[in-house]
User: Fold these one by one.
Assistant:
Number 1:
Amino acid sequence: MTIDARPHKFTLDTSTTALLVIDLQNDFLHPEGFCCAMHGVETSTVERVRSIIPRIVGVIDWARRSGVKVVYTRESHAPDFSDVTPSKKVRYENAGYPIGAPGKFGGFLIRGDSSSALIDELAPIDGEWQYDKPGQGAFYATTLEADLRAAGIDTLLFTGVTTECCVLATFRQAADLGFFTLLLEDCCAAFEPREHEAALDVLLGENGAIGWVATSDALVRSAMPRALDGHDVPVP
Amino acid sequence: MTIDARPHKFTLDTSTTALLVIDLQNDFLHPEGFCCAMHGVETSTVERVRSIIPRIVGVIDWARRSGVKVVYTRESHAPDFSDVTPSKKVRYENAGYPIGAPGKFGGFLIRGDSSSALIDELAPIDGEWQYDKPGQGAFYATTLEADLRAAGIDTLLFTGVTTECCVLATFRQAADLGFFTLLLEDCCAAFEPREHEAALDVLLGENGAIGWVATSDALVRSAMPRALDGHDVPVP
């Protein structure tokens, strides 16, 4: 099937496609989680960032009905910090959110605390994959690439937070690794709108040499005829 | 030594630092090379993009005098296209510059043709490293990471083209791999200024959690006292 994407049309086969749901964790998206509750973050910002959640839930529903593998990631670290590189330690301290900093749900990005858990709006089902990842890019120090190859997946759809940080890092890794990569722009967000837009400008750079961008609506509309065998069911 | 960088100061030890010179190739930067000679590219654009060359040559000179390892990369592919992924083949065709497309100096990005060779303004010396890379990120399908680790290098300075494409991809990989990463903004360029700016916005995103940005002037000024043992010599 072919999707009306930017800067060029995007073709995919649902049987060799996976949907990546990147870092929809309490630390980033719960209203009382570390990032949303940080000093100075406006309620309107929290609402804007969280507005991607129902859209992503809709795309997950579409994926399940279409035979598209759903894959969830969590940025997280061992409680003893053994998988935090010196560079990442300094960067996250500089940014004002040291790894392990105390929050309502536990240490920031600490594996095993509910702080780093998936948000309640997600409910992975059997056969869907979940990865804890210590990098921003989900291919760093995980078995994601090997698992996707073993499953014969060559195409990846990107959703999650934040657009310019973990989503873009994962996208660029995937493109180099040879996957066909489509970012669903209305299913990604950043706390600073300018940073979200910058990531899109990067992805749309070089007239398509970097990757593809589309809306979730364009994806689901394009997919309906094939995914649903012509039956008329509500669009998620 | 400490450099006046954005969004936070950057500290480095020249003995464990490498300078990456990314993709300064005829295909991208020679006035008659593939990209500069493409239909519609203005002379002023070519001049703007090429204006980074003397600045990079200056930083290379500083690096050599400071004990900083200089590393050059070339985006390139085997003449039989065996290292072109299906995704990259489609992306570069979409973009209007298929890999292998004929140009004045040979096939676009073809290894062994002078099209993909380093520009004449660079003259690597013994002990400097050169990599042919089939990805946008220089860590994909190369021995760069292993070589840097073996040499005890933990800090990387980024220069080259284009900012949002191969420079950013390499930077993000390096950050995840645990390197301390500083982009020299006046030593990077893109054919579209907006794409260069977008890459900087990404790197400056999340208040420093992604990486650091500085000018080459800030680097060299900070480095002088240590690198040159207090002797007063011309700044490159």
Note: The radius of gyration of chain A is 17 Å.
Number 2:
Amino acid sequence: MLALAGYPLGFQFRFYDISAEAPAGDLADLVVGSYEDQRALSRFVEGLDCITYEFENVPVGCARFLSKYLPVLPSPKALEVSQDRFTEKNFFRNLRIPTPDFIEVRSRVALGRALNQMGFPAVLKTRRLGYDGKGQLVIKKNADIEKAWQALKTQPQILEQFINFDRELSILSVRGRDGKIIFYPLVENQHRDGILRLSLAPAPRLTIELQKQAEAYATRVLEALEYVGVLTIEFFQVNEKLFANEMAPRVHNSGHWTIEGAETSQFENHLRAIAGLPLGSTQPRGYSAMVNLIGTLPSIKNMLALPGTHLHLYNKALRAGRKLGHITICAERRKERDAQLAELKTQINLS
Amino acid sequence: MLALAGYPLGFQFRFYDISAEAPAGDLADLVVGSYEDQRALSRFVEGLDCITYEFENVPVGCARFLSKYLPVLPSPKALEVSQDRFTEKNFFRNLRIPTPDFIEVRSRVALGRALNQMGFPAVLKTRRLGYDGKGQLVIKKNADIEKAWQALKTQPQILEQFINFDRELSILSVRGRDGKIIFYPLVENQHRDGILRLSLAPAPRLTIELQKQAEAYATRVLEALEYVGVLTIEFFQVNEKLFANEMAPRVHNSGHWTIEGAETSQFENHLRAIAGLPLGSTQPRGYSAMVNLIGTLPSIKNMLALPGTHLHLYNKALRAGRKLGHITICAERRKERDAQLAELKTQINLS
């Protein structure tokens, strides 16, 4: 999606992936190698002007190696912070951004102590490589403790306060090379089995106060990291208060609606930012809903027969739990968007 | 632009071009060969499902050769009709679609006779390979006749009535494999030196009657050719009447605004049509203006700094008179669009 947004701006692309099956290979040069393969990485940087990433688990060592040759934006520091939940939460805490309470856990004994301190329910999470609900388990009662510990004990963890949130929101922010910062409106995200299913943009019942809160927190993160590009922060909303859950130093699934639903897409703005070009308007165009297609694909004919459907397939092999594509619905009026969404949900069995 | 619209639908692409410099090579497989190179053409068709074209001067022989292997859509017949102004105008006439009067010219004597019959002013045009105002000369008085004849005499010609039109309009229509036909609203096109500079969509002061007239004519063409894909017809408007000027059996420059300005772009709808998928809504999203970038490129930074600017560069080498890209401006209100357009015109010296 970055390449699709970038070709019209006159950019050319080369991708690096550990798999030769990477979908980007269809529409740009693809260099295949491990993250440690310095020879492949050196071949990759040849002739490029700038490097970015759209996967936050690129090893920091790899990003730092590349940054010896070329600007890597957002900086490897942003990767480093967001790859470790403990580092990330401490980072938020140091910036006075509210988060659920959290405690580092290094042993079974420490877990017991942390639970005594925090109380039930709490969430045990691996510090690294968690995504789409993987690497975390809720502990509601004594009987859950040992199960969670056995499942996750091979990796360093944190215990987090379980927040009974009203809903999840995310903010997409963009910081240019010149330090200019812009924001998209907050988006409401609905998950199932830990995987994002649906984003509504702008978030329903969005108040100026909520938006301001999110923008203030994002600004602190962007400035602390001298960040360049799109940054996403996911929040839990409890009453009128936001708690930062996590950040992603990249374009984000909850921003896919911007392709049709905003003046400038997150992909184009990410590229404008890292290329030092003026950022584009983040103004929404009507009301959008983005629905992920997960695991299997409904009939393409049926999906395209629904009015207002914008289909985006990623050309990935089918696999349970995998995001294979998404559909965006845009309408001038909220009611119209909701009616189309209801029809789409029936179509793709998303109740 | 076809590939950029098609990847999200899950399509894959291979392009054929006589030049290895073809911009499409950046984002898809590119097979290079002459239109007569049957070996290269055979390599090209390997593994494809369907072939289309976005240049109406692909030789009909080439299209027919390919159609022995695979569906070529729109059919080679559509190419054949639109490649020859005399055939094309006769085709319109047979379908009772009004056109400027026209007479075939095969000799200097025949030109004199035709002018006697038609009167001044008239336009001498080559039958084939005319585009962007090339291959045509206006004859206003006796002194112009010899000049026009000398300039164009190496090729077969037609003499056309010079119509003092109010404006030029074009209609983009789409016919699916199942015969379903849909239309975008008429667009107003402004040319300079024979090259399209500006399209306004929907056309200002568009009446239901005008739209109906254009749709009725397009329908006759689409059905007569059992056409599949996007077809564009350019009209001269004189009072409330439309005269067909020419048709293009392809996505068209005057439809580039649909990328941001319509629910479904002409590129996506062309692909949906030839792939046998349901067609997408042609509903405009607000008011659009499309400005061509011709010959040279203004500063990209300056262009992107204008609010609401959607830049599309084609990655072609600079050359006088060449279309190097376009900018689309979209706004919810016409006034806002016009204000942005005025600013853009200053920026790129388009008065």
Note: Chain A has a mean pLDDT of 94.
